[in-house]
Amino acid sequence: MKIHQLSAADAIASLNSNPQGLSSIEAQRRLGEFGLHRVEEVAGESILLRFLKEFTHFFALILWLAAGLAFLAEWSDRGQGMAKVGYAILAVIVVSGLFSFWQEFRVERTLAALRELLPQQVDVLREGKAVRLLADRLVPGDIVLLEQGNNIPADCRLVEAFGVRVNDATVTGESLSKIRTAGPSAKEEIIHAENILLAGTSMVSGEAQAVVFATGMHSEFGKIAHLTQTGREAVSPLREQITYLSRLIGILAVAIGLIFFAISRILGVPFWEDFIFAIGIIVAMVPEGLLPTLTLALVLATQRMAKRHVLIRYLPSVETLGSTTVICTDKTGTLTQNRMTVRRVWLGAGLECPPNPGAGQEAAALYRPFFMAASLCHDLREGDQQGRKVLLGDPMEIALVETAERFLSALPACKKLDEIPFDVSRMRLSTVHATPEGPMLFCKGAPEMVIPLCDRILDDGEMRSFDSDLRAKVRQAQEAMAGQGLRVIAMSYRPLDDHWQRAEVEENLIFAGLAGLEDPPRPEVPEALRKCREAGIAVIMVTGDHPFTAKAIAREIGLIRSDDPLVITGDELRALTDTQLRLALDTPEIIFARVGADQKRRIVEALKRKGHVVAATGDGVNDAPALKSAHIGIAMGITGTDVAKEAADMVLLDDNFASIVNAVEEGRAVFSNIRKFLTYILTHNVPELIPYLVFSLFSVPLALTPIQILSIDMGTDSLTALGLGVEKPDPRMMQRPPRSQHQRLFDWPLALRAYLFLGAIEGAI
Predict the structure, then answer these.
(1) What is the maximum span of the chain, computed from C-alpha positions, in angstroms?
(2) Among residues 142, 155, 274, 330, which one is catalytic?
(3) What is the rounded CA–CA span in Å between residue 472 and residue 303?
C-alpha cells in the first residue's frame, strides 16, 4: 500500500523509523545514501559552450570566413592592407558576441530560484529530543515538528495533527486552505491525500508531527523543478526570423561575391586583386551592425516596458509577445487578487445584507450574534508586521473577522473558554466565549454540517422555530451563492448556562446566517480582456481551482459570455487523447479547472501544435513547467514564487493582468520598428556594393575600402537605425489581429523596397 493509505504507525514503520525519530548515526547514514535535501540543477550546457555559441551563429561564421580570407590575402600579397580588414572583422565578431553573451548571462543570474521556497531550518525529533537542523540535512524517516506559519520542508506524512490547515497554492494552484488529518487516506493519488504535506507549501494553522518520506528531487516539489528544467524551451519567433534572415543574407552575400569574382576573372582582373574584391563584396553585403542594433533596440524596448511594470528577462520575448495569439492564464493571483473577501451576507430567514456597513447598521443590531460568531469563532493569532498588529492564519477567517469589525462598532473582550477544532469529518469549528450575557457557543462551518444542528433561527432579532420551509429557503440561498462560485460558511450560536458540558454544546443551535466568500477579480481585468479580444488574442483560463469557482470568476470578468462554455477538469483532460484535446481547443469559450502541472504544459504544447504563439501566465511552482514550455512565460512579480519567475521570460511587477496588454502593444511596435531599421540597414548595402561594381567593370579606383564599410556598418548605420527602433506604437496597433506567423521580418516587399528602390536612389546620389 502507498504511504498515505497506511495508518500513522505503519507509515513510520514502513520507513524503518520510530515515533522518537532516527538516531544520529542512522540519520548520518541516510544522508550519505539519499544526499542533501536540495533541488539539484539538471546538468545543461556549460557556460563555456554557451559563450562559444555566441561566436558560431551563421552571421559570425560568414564573418570568420571573411576574416580568414583577408589574412590569407595579406599572407599571399603583403602590403594591400588586408590584415587590417581581418582584424576589423574580428573586432566586430568579438564585440557583438561579448555583448550578446553578457545580456544572456546577466539575465540568467537575475533571479536565483528553486531553493528559496524551502525553509532554512526545521525542528526534528532525533532519539526522542527536539533539535533544530538545517533543512538540507533532512532524510527520509525523520520526524519533523511543525506549527502555524511554518513552511513545509519536505514531503511528509502526518502522524499527529491538531487543527492543521495548509495553503498548497504554490504546488496545486488552489487558493483555499485545506484541512489535513493524520488518519489513513482512501485517495489514490498522493498529492490529493488528506494526510500529506508537500514541500514548498505552508501551514496556515495548527500543530503537527509528520514523518518525512521524500526529499530533494524525489519530492513533488523536486519533480516539478526537474520538469521545469528539462522541459523543452520554445524557440521564439524572433530568433527563428533572425536565423532565417542571417542565413538568407549570408548565402546571398557569398553568392554575389562568387559571381563577381568569376566575372572579374573573365575580365582579366589579377587573381589576388579579384580575391580582395570578392571579400569586399561579402563584407559589404553582410549587415554587420544588424545584430548589435537589434539587441540594443530590444534593450531600449525593455526599458520602456519596465516603466509600464513589465520586467523582461529574455530579450527576444519583447517581440514574441507582440505576435501572441493565445494567452493561457492562471486564475488565482493573476485574474484575481489572491485574497478572500466576503461577497454576500444572508442573515436569518432571508435578509440579504451588503457586506459593508453603509446600509446595514440596523441589520447589525438585529443579527449581532452572526457578526460576533464571525469575529470570535476562529483560531487566528496576532502577529507584528512592520510595527503594526495583524492577524495571521486562514485568509477566509481573516476576511470574516474584518467584515465583522466593520459592522460591530464596539465588541467587548470575550475570553475564549474552549474550542472544538475544525477537522475533515466535522467540517466545522466551535468556540466557547465568556460574554457579558454569559457563556456563549459560536459555531461556523460547512452549511450541510452546521444547519442540521440548529433547531431555531434568528429572524429580525427574534427566535423562531427552524421549520422545513425556512430550511428550504436557506438551502436555496446557499445553492445560489455556490452557483456564483462563492465559498459558503454557515454561522450559528447558543447561549450556555454556567454548568455547560463540552460534549453537549453543539446541540440545539440557533441559525444566524450565511456568508459567501470569494477571491475577488482584479478591477482592471475586464477591460484588459476586452482589449485582448479587439487585438485578436484568445484568453484561456487554466487553474487548479474548482470548476464552479473558475466558471463564476470567468463570467464576472467577461472571459465567458455564452450560457454553456466548455469546462474541462483535470480528470477529464487525463482521459482525452492529444487529438481530442486539440479539437476541444477549437471551442470559442473553454476553461480548464482542477489541472496539475504536467497538464498545464500539455495544454500549452497542444496549442503550439495547432500553430498558435502561446503566452502562459502564472505565479506558483505548479505553473513553472507551462511557463518554460510556452513561447513566452509571464510570472507575477509580487505574489509569484521565485520558481515561476525563474522559468518565465517576463515578470509583471504589479501582478496586473492589464499590464500584459501594454506589453503586447510594445511587442507589436518592436516588430514594426525592427522592419523599419532592417530596411534602413539593408538599403545601405546597395551604395556599399556599387563602388565594387564600378571598380570591377570600369577599372576606376576603389571608392570604399572594406575597413571603411565596416566603420559605416558598425558606427553610423547602427546609431541611426536605433532612432527607428524607439518609435512609439501606432494608436491603432491593438485594433488589428496578430500578424500571420508566415509574415517574415525579411520578405519580398521589404527586399524590393530596400535593394531596388531606396538602395538605388541612395547609390545614385
Answers:
(1) 120
(2) 330
(3) 59
* CB 597, CB 624: distance < 8 Å: yes
User: If you write DSSP's letter for every residue of 678-738 in order, what string do you get?
Assistant: HHHHHHTHHHHHHHHHHHHHH-PPPSS-HHHHHHIIIIIIHHHHHHHHTPPPPTTGGGSPP
> Are 310 and 650 in contact, with CB atoms under 8 Å apart?
yes
Rounded to the nearest 5 percent, the helix, strand and coil shares of the chain are: 50, 20, 30
**Residue 42 CB-density burial (10 A; 0-12 exposed, 13-18 middle, 19+ buried):** exposed
Can you tell me the distance from the alpha carbon of 583 to that of 712, in angstroms, rounded to the nearest whole number? 53
- Bridge partners, 492 (sequence order): 443, 511
Q: Are 696 and 260 in contact (CB under 8 A)?
A: yes
Interatomic CA distance for residues 428 and 442, integer angstroms: 11
Signed CA dihedral, 287, 293, 297, 302: sign only: positive
The pLDDT, as a whole number, for residue 145 is 93
DSSP states along 128-153: TEEEEEEGGG--TT-EEEEETTPBP-
In tens, the pLDDT along 510-539 reads 999 999 998 888 888 999 899 999 999 999
Does residue 168 carry a catalytic annotation? no
pLDDT tens figures, 288-313: 666 666 766 777 777 788 888 888 87
Report the distance separating Cα 321 and Cα 311, nearest Å. 13
Cβ contacts of 514 within 8 Å, gap of 6 or more: 344, 345, 346, 447, 474, 477, 478, 481, 488, 489, 490, 491
For residues 138 and 154, the answer to whether their CB atoms sit within 8 Å is yes
Q: Which three cell numbers stand for residue 113?
A: 530560484
Output the pTM of the full model. Answer: 0.65
Cell of 53: 555559441
